[in-house]
Amino acid sequence: MKPKVAFICVHNSCRSQMAEALGKLFTSDTFESYSAGMELRDNINQDAVRIIKDLYSINMNETQKSKLLKDLPKMDVVVKMGCNVVCPFLPAKHTEDWGLEDPTGKSDEEFIKTAKTIEEKVKNLARRIKNNEIKL
């Protein structure tokens, strides 16, 4: 069975949603991608939606929605996207913090940079899981 990975942040509207989308796109052979937050948002950040659509042809408005931590199944790996405030807690066999700044309200360049960083980190996480560098 493939491990379950949760990408979490406070609002589950931007970085964690991007990570869920890119995890599903690039690493679905290695792990199942989920995202959630402590507070629900009516919509995913529309700048994030537009950038992910432009770069990767994924429409997150159609494939994803804002979810709460309590809605997730039991997770094997938890990735905190980077919280300057209190980071949500979710029990897992492995937890790491990617420390990414929230691009909300910033330029498209910042969103593109964030998306590319998340793509790199998602692929790196998959490699570490495959190589048993992360004990699950």
Automatic annotation (TrEMBL):
<keyword id="KW-0560">Oxidoreductase</keyword>
<dbReference type="Pfam" id="PF01451">
    <property type="entry name" value="LMWPc"/>
</dbReference>
<keyword id="KW-0059">Arsenical resistance</keyword>
<dbReference type="GO" id="GO:0046685">
    <property type="term" value="P:response to arsenic-containing substance"/>
</dbReference>
<keyword id="KW-0378">Hydrolase</keyword>
<feature type="domain" description="Phosphotyrosine protein phosphatase I">
    <location>
        <begin position="3"/>
        <end position="128"/>
    </location>
</feature>
<dbReference type="InterPro" id="IPR036196">
    <property type="entry name" value="Ptyr_pPase_sf"/>
</dbReference>
<dbReference type="InterPro" id="IPR023485">
    <property type="entry name" value="Ptyr_pPase"/>
</dbReference>
<protein>
    <submittedName>
        <fullName>Glutaredoxin arsenate reductase</fullName>
        <ecNumber>1.20.4.1</ecNumber>
        <ecNumber>3.1.3.48</ecNumber>
    </submittedName>
</protein>
<dbReference type="GO" id="GO:0004725">
    <property type="term" value="F:protein tyrosine phosphatase activity"/>
</dbReference>
<dbReference type="GO" id="GO:0008794">
    <property type="term" value="F:arsenate reductase (glutaredoxin) activity"/>
</dbReference>
